[in-house]
Amino acid sequence: MRKPIAVVLMLAFMALWIWGAGTLGTMIAGSSAWLQLVYYIVAGFGWILPLRPLLKWMNANEPPEDD
Asked: What's the CA gap between 40 and 49, in Å, rounded?
């Protein structure tokens, strides 16, 4: 049951992350190219840090089910 829950949570998180990154990206559109470069690198790779605990939990060994 862990994997379906984790997938729903990941999809919800990614939707919010993409919306937030796009919104902030439009706000810095007039800034220097270096600031934009750093922002988009952080926005592109930064999503994995908050999802690491969820991925570890999702892939943790579950106890075997009794038949």
From this structure: 15
pLDDT one-digit tens code per residue, 2-41: 889 999 999 999 999 999 999 999 999 999 999 999 999 9
Backbone angle region of 66, left / alpha / beta, with phi > 0 → left and psi within -120 to 50 → alpha: beta
Encode the chain in three state secondary structure: CHHHHHHHHHHHHHHHHHHHHHHHHHHCCCCCHHHHHHHHHHHHHCCHHHHHHHHHHHCCCCCCCCC
Supply the pTM of this predicted model.
Answer: 0.77
